Protein 1
Amino acid sequence: MAHTKIIPYETAAKRFAELRAEGKTLVHCHGTFDMIHPGHIVHFEEAKALGDLLIVTVTAERFVNKGPGRPYFNDALRARWLAALACVDYVVIIPFADAVQAIECVRAHVYCKGREYENSENDVTGNIHGDIEAVKRVGGQIRYVGSIVFSSTKLLNQQFDPYPAEVKAFCQDVARDCSPDKFRGMVEDFRKLRVLIVGDIIFDKYTVLEVQGLTSKNRILSGRYVSEEMQAGGALAVLRHVREFTPHVRLVSLVGEEPWLEDALAQFGKPAEYDLIRSKDFTTVVKQRFVEPRVEGKELSKLFSVNYINKGSTKEELQFQVLERIADQIEDYDLVLVMDFGHGMLEDMVRVYVQQRAKFLAVNCQTNSNNHGFNILTRRYQRADAFTLDQTEMNLAVGRREIDYGRELTNLATELGSRYAWLTRGATETLGRNGRKDICKCAPFERSVVDTLGAGDAFCAAASLAAASGLPLKVATFMGQLAGAQAVKIVGNSEPIRKSKLLKAGMAMLAF
């Protein structure tokens, strides 16, 4: 029966070793297989002809990187219909994002990929090189099969509804003028950009607690310490995002002289990427968040936060040092990306100079608990070629709670002379506006959220690169949404958004 062909990953390696010992020639295919079509059947039949037994491994649903709504079918269904095929002998669900672990598990004599992979440049992830090396390590050979080619992604997009209706409509609109290959070319061209990031470095410390309840005497929340992790936040997180797309990136920032700082900076960046002013009179910003252990499928539960941060203004001599560092290099960069968290680095003289000298200026001026009501975009900046802000920041800039967001976005863009402007409204929508006063609206791509922290920074990073490249508003908004969708699946800033994932998701969502 078909279900007897499906074996667990934990015992699969032992079973395949036994088959090799029996003298069987093993052939291996790996993929997502979200929808079986005639191209897959031919692929499997041609692969099976190369040996005695055909083993098909499938990427587990939580590791599929084809964007929101994928895979359309769950692990059980994908494994079941593969096992129902007469030419398939074994099926294994692989709990990893790429094929290397699958290759090492099966250790087949022949590993088969589609003919489109004969040109490794067709693999947007770049994983094909690691696959080939893994096949060589286990003593196998790679063969390219499949004389008929279809696209599961295109079939799903055309015939099914992997995305909400409003997301699908937006993607179809973008796809009219931007094919998957054209989209890939646009993203690849970001590598030519020279980017200077100016802003506040923040270290996000996540302290995990198991809540035990309230103490009996003082009614204080009590918890058992589980673990702790330091993450790169603020402008440092944006540096890591941008680095995925271009090697020509540098960060100017202001930090303290804490003994732990050197190791932390080395963990998240290279010396050539930093241009830092260090002073014992400045406190490196650390935001410590106490959270409960993560539960799969649910948003991270946060308990409270403690901020380590200067209370007063930054000394004038430090401001001059920041200004000098920026002045020495600002004209060498195509894009100056200002990440203003209101933590003391971007005082008046620095902001004025950057606005005067940047070739293309993108601004993200954020409101947080430390600066609420004081770090307002229109009070701190008079120029921004592109800017992003969220709903709270828009309300503060306008000074009203009840507003027409599209109209006020246009008003802000006009006031700042902006060619691109974005308002991100969380789970509601993102609004984009360009110099021609065109407005585009896009619903969130990802509804299954792990942690929203840093999602706006990821959107800003991708959208700013698109804006500096002069891309159409809808395409730039699409890129920002892809970055944000990827970021909300990550705990805090524990890792940057990945170019390969953005490319794979974007090309999938534009395949109509």
Protein 2
Amino acid sequence: MESFFLYAAVFVVAILYSSVGHGGASGYLAVLALASFPKETAVTSALCLNILVSSIAFLTFQKAGYFRWGLIWPFLLGSVPAAYVGSISKISSPAYSIFLALALCLAALRMWMDFPRKISGEIYFRPHLVVAFAVGAVIGWISGAVGIGGGVFLSPLLLVLGWADVKQTSAASACFILFNSFVALGGHLSQVSDVVILDWIPLVTAAFMGGWLGSQMGAGYFSHLALRRVLGVVLWIAGLKLVYSAF
């Protein structure tokens, strides 16, 4: 019965995260942390699922015509090497809990945000190359250290600062998450001799089905804001629990 709830939670997380172009690593980590799984098992499993779901989300949003390579590559230039450095960095358990709690709270914020669709003729400004590189590097290091892809940090910036519309942000975030998750997974695997990744078939099935369904809805016109806000509350609770446990 506990396994059923775990797989169901992964399915729901994959649906709601992929609908906004995210892979769901912070959500998977929250689920696994609440289920008391060991850190490295949770991180490697979450990153593997992150790669799967962000790949589906990226292909879906890219096929729908929302992906802009010119928007995301400066961020990737800074984030990819920083994500690897972060993944091999040694951070204390309290620091890890705080970073993950921050990621969960930002993910919750993104789930609550409801931006209007792009208005015809509206212009979005691209960030300066140096700014994008620096932002990418900071996000990459934190993401690599925690074991996520970084979309929860990047997408609010793209939206709030007017660098992209909602759909472009989802497409860019999915690409950003995919690259960072690959290098972060390699770094984490290089630091441990024996990592147990959770049962693959049911987890992958749940994540694949949720990722496909959520990205299809996100690339279309289905908002399901109420469901996203319910997940946001859950993520806030998980984040507060981590902060409490850190002290």
Protein 3
Amino acid sequence: MSLKARITEDMKNAMRSGEKDRLGLIRMLQAGIKQREVDERIQLDDAQVLSVIDKMIKQRKDSVEQFRAGGREDLVAKESAEIAWLNEYLPAQLSDAELDALIKDAIAATGAASMKDMGKVMGILKPKAQGRTDMGVLSARIKAALGG
């Protein structure tokens, strides 16, 4: 079952069970997917759907920070719940050891020796790690491995 089909099934289940908050989130996710499909005139595959989900999670994490700073714990709880629901669609996260091994392999494959080669390393790792780790964390680890 594709990720889009799974999201549609989850929407139907949320409707049946009366979960209004979850239903709203799933509809927003579907709207984001549809928007990207219309803008780019393509059908999104699972990897592209994951990038839409990643973007939504990042937006919610930013919102959580802003709401915490503003003392709005009620909204922090709502956004945190949405992050948890969105995380259900992501594949299993990479462990630190797996991430380090991927970085080491990518550096060896590209022959990267300095920060100038970081783009090459990211180019190899991004498709492998998309949706399985935070890209900011990945970037920081690559910098550390390249001595930046």
Protein 4
Amino acid sequence: MSMKPTPPRSSFAIAGREIGEGHAPYVIAEVSGNHNKALDRALKMIEVAKACGADAVKFQTYTADSLTLPSDRPEFQITTGTWAGWNLHKLYQEAATPYDWFPALFAHGEKLGLTVFSSPFDNDAVDLLEGLNAPAYKIASNEFTDWPLIRRTAQTGRPVILSTGTAGLDEIDDTVAFLESEGVSEFALLHCVSAYPAPIDSAHMRNVTALRERFPVPVGFSDHTLDITAPIVATALGATIIEKHFVLDRSEGGPDSSFAIEPTELKRLCETVRDAHAATGGPQFGMKDAETKSPIYRRHFYATRDIAQGEEIGPDNVKAIRARQGIAAREFETLFGSTARQDIAAHEPVIWEAIHAR
């Protein structure tokens, strides 16, 4: 039975790390199948993600049978894109992370102080991850309308992050309403373009803005473009989660290696999106905190020569220069044509007390 709808939260924490407005983007380094069926490589990728500054590393928990059928029918053959020529079942067999690895993966992340979680693709996967005390769940774009799976993750009471690739606004509205009806208040929506790789001119980054305006929850970006430009743009638009596939070495291949970034790029991504977030403060006008520590010299009027008492003030005896004293340059119409109340020495600031204003 569905629960009473629960209002969503604008921020929540995963393993103690707050996510939402006012917090630097939560960077998820996505391993997917780029471990190439080597546990040592998967463990190394956790270490590298930690060293690069990621907040979390994410895997995918499925078997080929949980995603598709072992069929050779035409509709199960991939004919275009990165995986052209593959049979779906065989591709998923190749890319799947063995279930018996997950205890070691979670333990290694805990040892390093790096959050490890995963995208489940069926109830058995959720059960496995629950047994490992997974701190959150990620729903992939193609499972965005798999409400039975979403219900099972909702039953865990843990935060849920959902990618929205290919979903229309009506579907997003419906799934958000379903989450709320299932009692989920801690969830986030990620803009995503489900193309592998996604062309930069098809990134549609204003979707981040549209999602933020429509839903009072953390909004992020799951990126499949070839570099880190789009995540920086997403951060500037208010994204609070950034997910990016990575690989230790693209030249060694891997199911997702063609659109994954290498460690040097991941490090730069982590640093740059946090800098981008830090740069998006405000709006704030007038003197900023940083400016109070800088030598600010705005234009003020100073005497360019000695001015005698009673002498008229004008461009021939005063000049607006960069300085911290004197009448502001914007007051020139009031100043020009006034007379000196007292003698003003050359290179002294011209102040209101020293003149008879017009």
